[in-house]
Recover the amino acids of this structure.
């Protein structure tokens, strides 16, 4: 699709291509790749570079078994063919994570809803539904948060994010995303640690909703 303005930063893309990105982030990256020709081309280029660096290493640096495993890994396409097809606003990788079923939305109050796709110590990935004009509770980050817009748009202190745009937020960013008026904003968001909600009520709800 065209019109995407916020893309996958190189270090993230390289980590994804090399298979070293945690699963929660990988899902967001894979979903952006399914929506963005530019990043798909860059991913393919990184994959080719990774392969040629290995070629030039020769066999001395890698034991035979390891070398073969690495080459086998590089032979696997970056963008795997999912078992599920895109459904409505949900690209194939999201449908894969949903197991082909519609999201199970849970209310977070103020019309905001979430559907957790996966959650473990390493991180979590969820769908967020934010009604038009509504703010997501003010939050900072303990780690890296990736947010990909699937429907509508939001704005925060750093800019505007429309369908296909990826926001990368880290420890330094305390932001207040607000959905644009009109259609609800639906995002795919991955975090590697609990968000630090600053107001008391969301903090109390945190263990319940696993925000
Ligand atoms: Zn892109």
């Amino acid at each position: 699709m065209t019109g995407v303005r916020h893309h996958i930063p190189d270090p993230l893309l390289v980590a994804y291509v090399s298979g070293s990105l945690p699963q929660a982030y990988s899902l967001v990256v894979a979903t952006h790749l399914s929506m963005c020709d530019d990043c798909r081309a860059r991913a393919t280029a990184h994959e080719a570079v990774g392969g040629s660096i290995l070629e030039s290493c020769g066999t001395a640096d890698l034991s035979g078994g390891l070398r073969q495993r690495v080459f086998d890994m590089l032979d696997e396409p970056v963008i795997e063919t999912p078992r599920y097809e895109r459904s409505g606003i949900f690209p194939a990788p999201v449908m894969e994570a949903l197991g082909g079923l519609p999201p199970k939305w849970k209310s977070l109050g103020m019309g905001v809803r979430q559907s957790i796709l996966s959650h473990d110590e390493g991180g979590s990935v969820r769908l967020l539904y934010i009604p038009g004009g509504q703010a997501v509770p003010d939050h900072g980050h303990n780690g890296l948060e990736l947010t990909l817009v699937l429907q509508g748009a939001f704005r925060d202190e750093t800019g505007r994010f429309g369908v296909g745009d990826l926001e990368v937020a880290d420890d330094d960013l305390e932001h207040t995303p607000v959905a644009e008026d009109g259609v609800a904003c639906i995002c795919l968001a991955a975090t590697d640690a609990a968000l630090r909600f600053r107001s008391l009520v969301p903090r109390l709800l945190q263990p319940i909703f696993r925000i």
